[in-house]
Amino acid sequence: MKIKKLNLNKNSKIILSSLVVGSLLIGICGFYVVNDIQMKMDKSYSQFAQLMTKAIALQTTGLENVDNPEKSRILAGRLLPFFNKNDDVSYIEYKDSKNNLIYSSKSDYPVLDDDLTVSVSSPVFSNNKIIGAVTVGMNAKKSKLFAMNAKKSMVGIFVLTWSVFTLILFLSFILMSKELEKLHKGVRQIAIGQFGYKLESENMGELTQAFNDMSSLLSMYEEQNIEQLTLERNKLEAVLMSIINGVVVCDNFDKVVLSNSSALSMLEVEEKDFINTKIQDFIDCHGQKCFLDKIEEFKDTPLNIIEQKPIEFNIEAGKKTIKAMISPMFSKQQDYVGYIIVLLDITREMEVNKLKNTFISNVSHELRTPVTVLRTYIDTLCNNGDDFDEETKKEFMQTIDTEAKRLHSMVNDILDFSRLESGNVHLRKEYSDLSELLQQNINSIKILADEKNIKISYEREEKLPSVPINVESIDRVIRNLLSNAIKYSPDGKDIFVTAGLTEDKQNFYFSVRDTGIGMAKEHLEKIFDRFYRVENATHTVKGTGLGLHLVKMTIEKHHAGKITVTSKENEGSTFTVTLPLTVDEGELA
Predict the structure, then answer these.
(1) Dist CA 96 CA 388 (whole Å)
(2) C-alpha count within 13 angstroms, C-beta hemisphere, residue 534
(3) What is the pLDDT of residues 461-508, one digit of tens each?
(4) What is the rounded distance in angstroms from the CA atom of residue 461 to the CA atom of residue 438?
(5) Which residue, 438, 458, 466, 532, could crosslink 431 as a Cys pair with Cβ 3.0–4.6 Å?
(6) Rg (Cα) of the chain, in Å, rounded?
(7) Contact (CB, 8 A) for 280 and 339
(8) The pLDDT of residue 119
(9) Cα separation, 577 vs 565, whole angstroms
(10) What one-character-per-residue DSSP string does 193-236 give?
(11) If you average pLDDT over residues 382-402, what whole number do you get?
(12) Model pTM above 0.70
């Protein structure tokens, strides 16, 4: 979460607005106060003018019988003190009962008349009889001076009040800004994950304490959550890493967020080059984006269908064939959060299927050949046997016998394979002279070697001990190795058989070495696999591909021994069998 820097300009606008509003309120109040004072002063001044007029009217009493000229002189003398003592009097006029002007001070004091403000008239009585009227004009100099002073005082009070108010607000603003800046800094630290950050402020006691309490609780919760999350993640990673199948976890944006070591090994990619990349960008050994089309198909398929039937497809990674299955991934709230790709290495299964198909094809061909020969020869003898001489009949019978033996050998291989593959078969053993068994097999197979002008040499150590073996199965091993040596050797080549004890005198060994066409290095690791056959331009001998697999299974699974092979192309091959000289009593016949 991103927190912006504290906006002091906005706060300044708020303070300025407060100052303006406060100033307006103070100004309005001052205006009304001054206006009220002015109204009261005007009213008081009018009353003062009335009193002044009545006082002047009293000065004119007793002049009713005086002639007008003399009366004017007397009035001027009587009224002079009013002008000397009162700057507020602008003029005084005296009229008789007939409203004729008898006296006016305007002729004596013409300048005072320019600033007239109030004009007040009052009747003049004599013996309860009105004998005239006095009019007094007032300039209100004192009133104006007082009003001016009052206004100046109000302005001073206003300025002082505004200044104090502004100063208080400004100081409050400064103090509050500092406190808010501290609080803002604290919130920013919390926002970036610095839980446990403490504020130090005396002006916001309860708020500071509440913030510090919150920070402490968040820090405690963070430690608990991190510990729990770390534990759960470690558990998840441990489970994923221990799974033999490959697992790739992608988020809702197709980014690889997790992958176990099995997946990295299968895809032949480094973790740093795979994590946080888009799964669609992965390129297989053929330079193709093997996940691209299937991910698009996955996204275009409704989730309810994907849940019932995940998308499956095969990809190639180096020499491996990998089966991939894509399944959606949901949170506890059943929200779609991504998908999981499970990878299974089916290279072995694909090879076995291929070998099985080859085996079926080879067996079908191998079985068809002797069966066809047998049917042909038998049908010929049945229908035309009387036309053949004894020599021809004997030749036919020998061919039939040879093909029958060949067919029998093939059927035995298949039956032995099924029997020895099952886990509940235990071959009973007896101590036998293995060196003599080797000699017997060499003698019996010599007829095949003679047909190709191949010489079999046999060397053995003297006084070799008996070996605990199942004679029938070891006899088959020896015959298989000898017959293979003859099959894959050109005419006129030699075969060498040796027998003896290992250096530690704990095991019996024998080897069969031919000088035939040999095998390339890449075939040596698979030569003992079931259904595996080496086929090339010079090596085209047919078979089921089970012979050497049966040999290995007999030696290693049922006799606790070991068989190895060394070979070079065009130099021949050597098969070495090692058997222990002791065995558990329970395995003896």
Answers:
(1) 196
(2) 21
(3) 988 999 999 888 898 889 889 988 888 888 888 999 999 999 888 999
(4) 13
(5) 466
(6) 64
(7) no
(8) 76
(9) 9
(10) T-TT-----STTHHHHHHHHHHHHHHHHHHHHHHHHHHHHHHHH
(11) 81
(12) no
